[in-house]
Amino acid sequence: MTDTSVDPPRTPRHSTAAGPSGAGPSTGGASDRDPSTADLSTAGPSTADPSGADLHLDLPATGSRRAALMAALREAIRGGRLAPGTRLPPYRALAADLGIARNTAADAYAELVAEGWLTARQGSGTTVAERAEPVPPTRARRSSPPPRPTHDLRQGQPDAAAFPRAAWLAAGRRALTAAPNEAFGPGDPQGRRELREVLADYLARARGVRTDPDRIVICSGFAHALRLLFDGPRAVLPARTAGALAVEGYGLAFHRGLLAAAGVTTVPLPLDEHGARVGGLAHQPEVRTALLTTAHQFPTGGPLHPGRRAAVVDWARGRGGLVLEDDYDGEFRYDRQPVGALQGLDPERVVYLGTASKSLSPALRLGWMVLPDHLVDRVLAAKGEREAWASALDQLTLAEFIDSGGYDRHVRRMRRRYRDRRDRLVGALAERAPHIEVTGIAAGLHAVLRLAPGTERSVLKAAAYRGLALDGLADYRHPLLAPEAMPATDGLVVGYGTPPDHAYPAAVEALCAILPSPL
């Protein structure tokens, strides 16, 4: 007989119905076995059906195998682990996996069909039966997420609907076709060579970065890069020896919290229309490293002034320190020529940090560190012997996407789209709220709306009441930034990249509706 993957359950050997002669229940002994299958009772695992699905069941070591199997299946169904409609493996495969006789598994299936726990149809296999009484829900391990806002103008996210799915899929297919077999083994902590090579070319061409593939280390994003540099027992710049870290007076609280958790003391630098006032670094001997968003200060906007760019590199040389360059929004500029990377001024004193989070999607979890030569081995030691974060397959796909020109085409397309959104926002504000000053709009995915003193909190409350999600400027201010060094300013940080195209006009309308009238 030919073994098949779908096996209709056998008639139960312990049926409670009387036989044709009026006899009582069968005892299931050898005398009533089907002669054609009597020899299957000793079948071993070697006869397993390869098409069977895996099913985990714990059977006790002693006692009736049939009773134990039925009890285990009932408990899995009753507890909800096997939901209604779940297809079970063929009894031959299950018997081989559990090391029991085929007839035993077949009898257990048939009995459970008779009891209503399972359903069997010729050609469709055996499935868990639909039941009138639902399985009690399992206790939630965490509270439900908050409801999504009606309008979302929070910063930091690109338009998720604009991800280039077709082009990415095509690049992935080409990358997998060309990938060597070793790409499917343990990952190299430095990252795939294919990606590091195309990144070296792309960053040199588009951002003015001076590097080679051996000085690039792939990571899973900017936060991961900070952890490699500052956190953990193998941190590259441990707080106990690296000293304090200078940061911009306005920035992400998440990054400050990450650094604080690593024991790093952050010293805020005041900002003005030319970016961070780096001249004060000369008077802070405890600081040897500075973290700056040089291309587009986050969140206030604007590039670091050329004179200050040269000054901070000179400071790092003289102090024997480092500048960490967060190339935030470096690819999205609208009204000015692109500002090249600070790293190009001195590759041995600047660590360049970039990601695909804004240009493609934060879901990719891909970033890169362009390192001074003396830090490469230390960063790799911090990562460990194997890549634990960034998928090698995503790296290969991104490498192909960049190399084929797909990345450049996507960035140019999104640059036009985001510029159009920015223009629509600025135009609506000029018409509906001309008293509101808009800044930081020459590049990036957000704008800063300056508000009258004392109005930020009330405007945010009005926004929440209308289902409009956006951020206040106060949330980004460093808690140690002295008012005399830089007075606090009320404002809103409006992310115009977040909503999909169809939702953007309504979001802008909701924003204009909650803005305060002129005083």
UniProtKB/TrEMBL annotation:
One of its GO terms (molecular function) is transaminase activity. Residues 38-49 have a biased composition (Polar residues). Keywords: Aminotransferase, DNA-binding, Pyridoxal phosphate, Transcription, Transcription regulation, Transferase. It comes from the Bacteria. InterPro entries: Aminotransferase_I/II_large, HTH_trans_reg/aminotransferase, PyrdxlP-dep_Trfase, PyrdxlP-dep_Trfase_major, Tscrpt_reg_HTH_GntR, WH-like_DNA-bd_sf, WH_DNA-bd_sf. Residues 1-59, 124-157 are annotated as: Disordered. Residues 63-131 form the HTH gntR-type domain. In the C-terminal section; belongs to the class-I pyridoxal-phosphate-dependent aminotransferase family. This is PLP-dependent aminotransferase family protein.
